[in-house]
What we know:
Layout: H1 3-11, H2 14-17, H3 21-32, H4 48-57, H5 59-76, E1 81-87, E2 92-96, H6 102-108, H7 118-121, H8 125-132, E3 136-139, E4 152-159, E5 165-173, H9 180-205, E6 210-213, E7 224-227, E8 232-236, H10 238-244, H11 248-253, E9 255-256, H12 257-261, H13 271-285, H14 290-297, H15 301-311
Antiparallel strand pairs: 1-2, 1-5, 3-4, 4-5, 6-7, 7-8, 8-9
Amino acid sequence: MRHADRINAVASNPSECGRSALFASWARSLTRYKLDPLDQRPPRMLSAGELGVSRDRLAPLLVAAEGTLDRLFQTVGGSGSCVLFTDGQGVPVDRRGACGDDRIFRAWGLWTGAVWSEESEGTNGIGTALAEDRPLTIHRDQHFYTRNIGLSCAVAPVHDHCGRLVAAIDVSTCRNDVTDACVRLIASAVADAARRVEARHFRNAFPGARIVLAPDADWASGALLAIGNDDLIVGATHASRLACGITQTMLARGLPAQSILSPCCDSVEDLDGAERGVLQRALARTGGNVSAAARALGVSRATLHRKIRRAGLSRHA
Length: 317
């Protein structure tokens, strides 16, 4: 069965469309976006001005991504792959590729400024990963357009410091000898790169905060929390929002870190206990020097001594 005929057969059968995310994407491409799998037109290209606007919008994220994209290309570039960093509309705004492969990738449209949204290009790695907000691979004849079935793409979405889907990392190859196992290995590297970019961008966005791991998560998950000096959570990555049920409304209202990190201990605030914690931190930062701690807290040495005695803390020289 020809590729286009297979797509038409799947899209016209609702039971088939419900079997997999791939088939659902084929159906969207055919029925919602009214695309023709036999269309041979290359991807639409943004003007230089439009591309500049997209790059400016992602400037902080591009800074955070630079080193990670370089390392990712060092890992996969030898296999005849290119690395693309796209905006939330599926437009590559940065790329890594071997000079000897540039002519080939440019011909495929794997270049900065090309529009790879699902609405424009049908089922493809970049557009479909963004449409579904999840990492995925689109391997050869899983693409919607017949002209794209020579491509294999592994993509992972990237979220900003507010948990919004704003970008994606893609590794694409047009080599015909790439195997499913190789694509899976590349997909793992891409997903790891996306989490690293999110974490770096998150740290940059909250430079004065403590960055901690969300409960029951590991560092590879990217579930990070930013905690301010008042022990309120001021930021949460996309992964930590999903894991802990954190919303932007909760953060705007004021979310105590204890309610997420130690929910079983979350109770009515103890003013004496809070003051004791402040004293302990001040003394720890000054190595137990009461005079230095008093200056840091903006109180007299005598006042601090009284507070230390009242809190039951050991005396320091």
